Amino acid sequence: MSGDGLAQIGGSLYGFDVRNLGTNTTTLGLNSSTRNQLRLEMVAKLGGMRDWMRIILDRVSVDSSQSREVNMKPGLGGLEFVNPGLRGTVPVIIEVMIDGRAVTRNFMLPVHQGARLKVTTALFENALNVSRVDRVFDPVRSTARIRGQ
Predict the structure, then answer these.
(1) pTM beyond cutoff 0.85
(2) Cα distance between residue 16 and residue 10, in whole Å
(3) Where do runs of H (alpha helix) occur along the chain?
(4) I need a surface site. Which of 81, 89, 100, 115 has the fewest CB within 10 A?
């Protein structure tokens, strides 16, 4: 299932495109008619109980030049985030509820083009494994480990 749409918030028009909904290759594309910063929150259900995970990318720059793409893997599989032309740091918050126990981790993610986040290390070691990618589903260009705050 795929689809696209528009939303107007204030004086800005935001476009979005969802591809392959309900699969492990679901991709969300975003753009804006003006330069803005967004807070992206993605929530995934974990298992059959009340367990869940939320990944928040804060202050993500969007504009009309190119679409930003996000792919959230099922379960604890992580996230891919591509923001063409972006160089800078994006705050990342990972919140998880497992067996009634809440865990929250905060990171400052250096971004150059795109990143693939592996969240399992964030939960157990307070470190986030980050791989540099040029597009979602592309091969990894380099890998780094970021300590939590």
Answers:
(1) no
(2) 16
(3) 120-125
(4) 100
